[in-house]
Design brief:
CATH class of the domain at 43-156: Alpha Beta
CATH architecture of the domain at 43-156: Alpha-Beta Barrel
Structural class: alpha/beta
Bound molecules: zinc ion
Radius of gyration: 16 Å
Order of helices and strands: EHHEHEHEHEHE
CATH topology of the domain at 43-156: TIM Barrel
Largest sheet: 4 strands, parallel
């Protein structure tokens, strides 16, 4: 059986630290390493994630970047050129709505607009967009159905070592980010996509 461990961080410092920790700090049992897939995912398209992207590239790793389409080319977020370079480097560009609302609080029409239009906008930039992440890891069955109907073939909420620690592994329980999470620029509070202590 393949176990999938999602790693989602908003802070780039934590991203880089996570990558290095995965490579050097946690020796995995041989049988687990053969059956384990670790995905490195980054949410929201913050420009400072380019530092993590450079680290991954130097290590020959790829990540998935969940990007709200309406934030592209806004100050402190990825530019269109950044996304093109990330994609050219082998990374996945994935859906994260248009403006990152809490989908369960919206009407179905507005959920559809946020999810489908976000996907279309990224597709129109030339990306094959098949994965989706729920903003704030907030979802219900109606929202899940809309995401599926918008053409995504995978969607995820919150994936953390705390939630999905591999039995028998030597990963710490619980894993804590080495630096405090920073509020999203313009946001009203902490960004709930990140692991909360
Ligand atoms: Zn997010």
């Amino acid at each position: 059986m393949t176990r999938r461990v999602g790693v989602r961080w908003a802070a780039v410092g934590a991203c880089a630290a996570m990558v290095l920790a995965l490579l050097s700090g946690f020796a995995m049992p041989a049988h687990a390493a053969a059956n384990t897939v670790i995905t490195l995912t980054f949410d929201d398209g913050n420009a400072d994630q380019l530092t993590a992207a450079a680290t991954l590239k130097n290590l020959g790793l790829h990540g998935t970047y969940f990007v709200p389409s309406g934030w592209v080319d806004q100050p402190s977020y990825f530019t269109s050129a950044n996304l093109q370079q990330l994609f050219a480097d082998g990374n996945e560009i994935a859906g994260h709505t248009v403006t990152h609302p809490d989908l369960v609080t919206l009407t179905s029409d507005e959920v559809t607009r946020q999810v489908c239009n976000g996907r279309v906008a990224l597709a129109n930039m030339g990306f094959k967009v098949t994965s989706f992440a729920y903003p704030f890891a907030s979802l219900d069955p109606a929202v899940q159905t809309i995401v599926k109907n918008c053409g995504f073939n995978s969607a995820r909420g919150l994936g953390t070592f705390t939630a999905r620690t591999i039995p028998g592994s030597r990963l710490p329980k619980p894993f804590r980010p080495p630096t405090p999470m920073t509020p999203r620029p313009g946001g009203s509070g902490q960004h709930m996509d990140a692991v909360q202590p």
